[in-house]
Amino acid sequence: MCGDCMKLRRRRDSRTRKIQTLFGTIAVDAPRISVCPCRNNWGFVDVSQSPLAELLLDRCTPELRQLQGELSVRHSYREAARLLNTFLPCDPVSHATVRNRTHRVAADLEQKAIALPNSEPESDPAAELLVLIDGADIRAAHGYQSRHLDVTFGKIEVTGKPPRRFALAPKGAPSPLATLRQALHEQGWRPGRAITVLSDGEAALPGLVRAAVGEPVTCILDWWHISMRVQHIQQALRGIDALDPQHRAGLEMVEWRIGRLRHLIWNGYHEEAHDELFGVRHTASEVAYLNGERFRPAVARLLWNCDDLRRYLANNTGSLIDYGARYRSKLPISTSRAEGCVDEIANARMAKKQRMRWSPQGAHRIAIVRAAVLDGRLKSEVSGLLAA
Ligand SMILES: [Zn+2]
Predict the structure, then answer these.
(1) Do both 235 and 313 map to the same domain?
(2) In angstroms, what is the span from residue 3 Cα to ligand 1's centroid?
(3) 123 in any annotated domain
(4) Cα of 13 to ligand 1 centre, how many Å?
(5) Gap from CA of 28 to ligand 1 centroid (Å)
(6) N or C: which end of the chain has fewer CB within 10 A?
(7) What pTM does this model have?
(8) 53 CA → ligand 1 middle, Å
């Protein structure tokens, strides 16, 4: 029935369509229905639509599409096709079909995200809206400008909502900023709301969030990455200790200073930490001087690690905070959860040990489908469709 004039619409013809389902391929009637003359602006041309084709994209049921998407973000397209062909009574699918379908699922997800008006209510403005962000570089396919591709992964967390993952390969995304902005909207962000970005010091990553919202964001340097660098200095110190030096006093001094250094950074005394690093350097040089030539390489390693930490802190001065205070307020100080996100999203399919090489678009699409699978968004889409 036409929604405008309430007249019955004409059934133009009926075709049989083959639909792939989880339980095999079936043939169903797929009528084509003429568009009502009152809506038909083309005059005498008979325009029709096929409701079934609009409902079932790719001539396959949403459950099958979801399964194909889930398998292909966990396994190679070839392996996903093999699994499908082993377990399902459908006509055999090729890896190219699985790939094309996954790409279309990704394109749908992306298009829907940008096209749909945002219906999510605003989340509690007092709660911190935290973006944990991290990057990975994966091998690019031959013929692209660089050998590696950047893929960015992250999680948006706010109290009262499950975390929302996002992933994008900026070079392969049609509109990376809109995608990110939409993900923030889904977590209840509104323009003007403060955002905190936790990252490992890669300047491009907070920059991406800043560009997406068009407003300044608060950046915090990940504690874990600082802590690892301090630990490297401690390891270098153990390397010196293992050589059994005669003059130990200097060594004990270095050890004490490293402990103090960690304490200073943790509590937000960053200038003092900078001075302490020079102190560690100075005392360590004396250890080499007192104990002889044999100690020089081990001490050089310690000095190198000190300089590495100093550069890291200097490059991120604006994102250093009082970690202790933040920790005591039970707020996250580490991107370890974003890194988990990288593992979940990237490593299953894009790890360097795999021989697979990626086009920017291919990488982007698999990453967004993977993020949607992990969030359960693909599944809820299917149940939404079934309910409709
Ligand atoms: Zn009508």
Answers:
(1) yes
(2) 7
(3) no
(4) 19
(5) 27
(6) C
(7) 0.76
(8) 21
